[in-house]
């Protein structure tokens, strides 16, 4: 059965959306879905959510109803119990019985509360302890593994979970002190090998990173000509899977994803001991954790900068459609290449579509999202960008803010692009976003 909670929502836990939907259809959809624990109904939209739920909130202005799936209770409350007439010999006997009953009930209730408190405390301590056991690797340390250890951990590199320009990723498990930790092992291509000194320096610097929007780097293998990187395993796939699947993610969850990626990049660019340029920001390199937070991956392959450097020359890295123009102009590369890639991806997050869409002919203005987005912004057609997404259109101020930030990020001139600090402030509403210039303009700057 379904139990209602008025004006309640868990913004970041939805995995599917039904639009349009009636309230009855919304509830039935959850009842018939084993994965569904809660549905949120508002207007004509239905958001299905599954455990674990986090960041719940109640607000009288939400205008949404949460329906919780609960177990049917077959117990039927009894009718009124007819009074029973019993004659006691004295009022003292009645008083004694009642007093004794109250005393016994009080003792039992106290015992139950004490046991419940003890159980909850023990369970909480057990969970914390289990979490610490699962990740029995200290932060700030890049652990060294032998090739045979990782070969055994991945069962002979049997289960491939991803691949890219730098190598193939396999799922594995590492056992430490009898505790099993799931990991993702990236086997680097031999054509992308760095010299020993550079490789060691990179992985040691990456081992120092620690941020909630980065996939945790655990360690590496450097053995003969073999180079492997070991990361924390994320079970919910990539942002690409999340955005470009059959079901459109909710607007609020997309906001959360975008802001998380921005905070992660800000950390890499400005808050690390050694500055890190990612060089390949795209939805396929952003993973989603158990709580649907964005976690940047693959930053272990980025070119590291020393504090007294602001730019570096390196071979072209990145993925078509996300690569900044300066890569192709033999110009120095800076953190602004990541800003450009983020801008492209931000538009994809807003619109839930890929930058280059093969469904349209090359003459169709919608074929290239970055070009079409600027045209839509100039002509005031933001509704076309989100394909009539009412949740986004009901938050049009935030929608416009995100589009404007994205257009600033994809300026052709790197000097015109925002920094990730500016991006983060603007996305979170802490700074105003001026109207962006056209992509060919070189005369406008932003100060925050």
TrEMBL record:
Where is it predominantly found?
A: membrane
**Per its UniProt entry, what is the enzyme's top EC class, as one word?**
transferase
Please name the PROSITE patterns in this protein's record. Answer: PROTEIN_KINASE_ATP, PROTEIN_KINASE_DOM, PROTEIN_KINASE_ST
Q: Might you give the EC number(s) for this enzyme?
A: 2.7.11.1
The protein's matches in Gene3D superfamilies, at most eight in alphabetical order, are given as: Phosphorylase Kinase, domain 1, Transferase(Phosphotransferase) domain 1
Q: What keywords does the record list, in alphabetical order?
A: ATP-binding, Disulfide bond, EGF-like domain, Glycoprotein, Kinase, Lectin, Membrane, Nucleotide-binding, Receptor, Serine/threonine-protein kinase, Signal, Transferase, Transmembrane, Transmembrane helix
Segments spanning the bilayer are 92-119
Q: Give the GO molecular function terms.
A: ATP binding; carbohydrate binding; protein serine/threonine kinase activity
Q: How does it sit in the membrane?
A: Single-pass type I membrane protein
Which residue ranges does the record assign to the Protein kinase domain? 155-430
Reaction catalysis annotation: L-seryl-[protein] + ATP = O-phospho-L-seryl-[protein] + ADP + H(+); L-threonyl-[protein] + ATP = O-phospho-L-threonyl-[protein] + ADP + H(+)
Q: Where in the cell is it found?
A: Membrane
Q: Which family does it belong to?
A: Belongs to the protein kinase superfamily.
- What this protein is called in its record is non-specific serine/threonine protein kinase
């Amino acid at each position: 059965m379904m139990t209602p909670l008025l004006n309640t929502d868990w913004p970041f836990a939805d995995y599917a959306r039904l639009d349009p939907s009636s309230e009855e259809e919304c509830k039935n959809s959850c009842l018939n879905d084993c994965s569904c624990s809660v549905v949120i109904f508002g207007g004509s939209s239905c958001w299905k959510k599954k455990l674990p739920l986090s960041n719940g909130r109640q607000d009288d202005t939400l205008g949404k109803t949460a329906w919780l799936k609960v177990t049917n209770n077959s117990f039927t409350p009894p009718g009124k119990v007819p009074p029973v007439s019993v004659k006691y010999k004295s009022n003292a006997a009645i008083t004694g019985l009642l007093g004794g009953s109250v005393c016994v009930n009080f003792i039992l209730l106290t015992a139950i509360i004490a046991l419940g408190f003890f159980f909850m405390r023990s369970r909480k301590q057990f969970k914390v302890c289990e979490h610490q056991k699962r990740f029995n690797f200290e932060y700030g340390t890049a652990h060294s593994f032998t090739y045979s250890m990782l070969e055994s951990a991945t069962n002979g590199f049997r289960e491939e979970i991803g691949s890219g320009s730098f190598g193939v990723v396999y799922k594995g498990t590492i056992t430490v002190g009898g505790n099993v930790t799931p990991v993702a092992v990236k086997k680097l291509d031999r054509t992308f090998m760095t010299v020993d000194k550079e490789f060691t320096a990179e992985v040691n610097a990456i081992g120092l990173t620690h941020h909630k929007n980065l996939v945790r780097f655990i360690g590496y293998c450097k053995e003969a000509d073999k180079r492997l990187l070991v990361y924390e395993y994320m079970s919910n796939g990539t942002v690409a899977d999340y955005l470009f699947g059959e079901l459109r993610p909710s607007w609020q969850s997309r906001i959360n994803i975008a802001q998380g990626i921005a905070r992660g990049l800000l950390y890499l660019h400005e808050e690390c001991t050694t500055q890190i340029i990612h060089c390949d920001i795209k939805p396929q390199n952003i993973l989603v954790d158990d709580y649907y937070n964005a976690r940047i991956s693959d930053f272990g392959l980025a070119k590291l900068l020393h504090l007294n450097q602001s730019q570096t020359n390196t071979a072209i890295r990145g993925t078509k459609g996300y690569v900044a123009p300066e890569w192709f102009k033999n110009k120095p590369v800076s953190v602004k290449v990541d800003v450009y890639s983020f801008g492209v991806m931000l538009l994809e997050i807003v619109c839930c579509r890929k930058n280059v869409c093969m469904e349209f002919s090359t003459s169709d203005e919608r074929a290239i999202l970055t070009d079409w987005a600027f045209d839509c912004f100039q002509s005031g057609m933001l509704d076309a960008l989100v394909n009539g997404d009412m949740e986004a259109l009901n938050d049009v101020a935030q929608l416009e803010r995100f589009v404007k930030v994205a257009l600033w990020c994809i300026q052709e001139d790197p000097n015109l692009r925002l920094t990730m600090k500016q991006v983060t402030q603007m996305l979170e509403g802490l700074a105003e976003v001026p109207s962006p210039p056209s992509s060919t303009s070189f005369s406008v700057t932003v100060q925050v």
